[in-house]
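note to self: dont lose this again. the chain is below, predicted strucutre after it. 433 aa total, dont forget to put it in the shared folder this time
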Amino acid sequence: MQKTLNIITENVGQIRPDSVDEYIKIGGFEALKKAITMHPLEVIEEIKKSKLQGRGGAAYPTGIKWEQAYYVDKNPKYIICNADEGEPGTFKDKVILDYLPLRLIEGMTIAAYILKSPKGFIYIRGEYPESQRIVSSAIKEAEKMGYLGDDILGTGFSFHIEVLSGAGAYVCGENSALVESSEGKSGRPRIKPPFIKNSGYLGMPTLVNNVETFACVPYIVKEGGEKFAGYGTEFSGGTKLVCLSGNVKNRGVYEVPFGTTLRELIYDIGGGLPEGRKLKFVQLGGSSGPCIPESMLDIKICYKDLKVKGLTLGSGAILVVDDSNCIIDFLKCITEFFYHESCGKCTPCREGNKQLLALVNKFINGSATYNDLETIKKVGQIMKEAAFCGLGETAATAHLSLIKYFEEEFVEHINKKCRANICNFGGDKDGKR
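---
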């Protein structure tokens, strides 16, 4: 098995991002031309054969999602691309936005053809102003060339795409909060049901998918779902863009086939850890993801294999942490982030993050007790089970997983010892040093 592939990242950096002519020369829009000759359900069947699952983190089967949207008997239907990418450690969607936006646009247009959608949005985080400019330019060029806008390729089908800018709220990565924000409202998650596939943008049926998900569609339609699925495992089709960062030599975005192990990713592709340091743990899926020890690195990047171990891949962020880091200091950064980003709508998240930060600070300043360790577990579990949306449900994931695998280091901090010699236990009650 090849270590890395170029299925959806083929030609990255080789063409001008907004040039339709250059995109066509590398096979661009051939999938769209093929799709408009097919029945919508035939296209959906290819998506189902591909075993493509949502690449934003939820991993819901894309073909089934599109089929459900197709059968919703209500119009108009809207298409939204989630390009918020606010998960810390995640920067893989930016590769598509900056270098192959026309592939994204083609994938969205195919979805629009299936659903007969007149309007789509690409919701890009506000911290990506250059990406917004590039994508907007690509949209204009696609319209000029007849691949977007009115009467696409002379079929009578029209589809328009608008770029929306986020305002830096992490919670808008949650689909219903993203829809709220797209309508100009405060980005807070909605009560479900009704689900956005039935009542989304302006109360109409709405399909929301991630940048990477839409970018996979042209390859699947052009080459066939079975070929795409063949690059992955029995349960996870195709390839995955992963963001490798932290204490590793070769940081960056890599497209790897499902079935690649974390060890292969970190040591073969990533080149291992610099300066001869030892690996302490790896965090999967960004700040909302679990942390696992070195002994678990032979797990394959496969949705089923990870699920069996109680793990998730999330957005595809892989953070490598070496033994020069303190687990409690690491948790403080994560806890401060979620405390800041909580929208405050539900009590478990609003109050839970506040209490977690207070507890973590006690471990840093040397005042923590064994009871505080148990309280972190209880608060984290309550948030996981009772929070209103994914932010609150996963905010304590790192805490719970680190306690599971490294509880002895929490105990050491109770005894005022820090292996990394970062915590001097001389700070104030807020954990400042």
